[in-house]
Design goal:
Layout: H1 14-21, E1 31-34, H2 35-44, E2 56-65, E3 67-71, H3 80-89, E4 95-98, H4 104-116, E5 121-124, H5 128-136, E6 142-145, H6 150-154, E7 159-164, H7 177-183, E8 194-201
Parallel strand pairs: 4-5
Antiparallel strand pairs: 1-8, 2-8, 3-6, 3-7
Length: 204
């Protein structure tokens, strides 16, 4: 059958997740749940308009997503260690983006700031796509990008500093986050991993 994709972006996935939680349990509405919507949001937000367990019927794990830490080529860094050094040299001037406050990318950078003792500034967006475009337009310093940026990395429009959760076959020269963090002297730092899974409204 045909599927209609209804992207409800923003608020760390809360908007779209609430819409599915309130939908009729008739099998015609599904949610692509994530680590954010069902794992970290309950820990980050004091109150959610949905219960990640009680309001949904799980269908299937779909997969895990790789991410790449990227910067614009004009930024004078070639590694995570370089990025940390620049952030320490220019506190409160480097910016990073995410798809929303409390989202995976936001938490990953909060953890990075804590581990490295840096003060990079969070600029929340309504999705990773617009954030990546602003890194390419030199309006942002860095972002965790998904696989959609692979062509721009290979084309030299973005510089990849680290891959997560492991090295990617498509970018053999880019270290894993674990390798980059060890080189940078913060071996304890790891951004949250991303899983995607289909869920339906409870009672489906």
């Amino acid at each position: 059958q045909s599927f209609v994709v209804d992207n409800r972006t923003g608020a760390a996935g809360i908007i779209g997740t609430e819409a599915v939680a309130r939908a009729a349990p008739d099998g015609y509405t599904l949610l692509m749940g994530t680590t954010g919507t069902h794992t970290t949001n309950p820990a980050v937000f004091a109150k959610l308009p949905y219960d990640p367990v009680k309001d949904f019927a799980p269908v299937s794990l779909v997969g895990n997503a790789p991410f790449v830490l990227v910067v614009h080529p004009s930024i004078p860094v070639k590694s995570l260690r370089d990025l940390i050094a620049l952030a320490k040299a220019k506190p409160d001037s480097l910016t990073y983006s995410s798809s929303g406050i409390g989202g995976i990318a936001h938490l990953g950078f909060v953890a990075l700031n804590t581990a490295a003792g840096t003060r990079m500034i969070h600029v929340p967006y309504k999705g990773i796509g617009p954030a990546v475009l602003d890194v390419m337009g030199e309006r942002l310093t860095t972002v965790y990008s998904d696989a959609s940026s692979m062509a721009n990395i290979k084309g030299g429009k973005l510089v990849a500093l680290a891959a997560f959760p492991k090295r990617l076959d498509e970018l053999p020269g880019v270290p894993s986050v674990a390798e980059a963090a060890a080189e940078a002297g913060i071996p304890q730092w790891r951004p949250p991993s991303i899983w995607y899974g289909l869920v339906a409204p409870k009672g489906t």
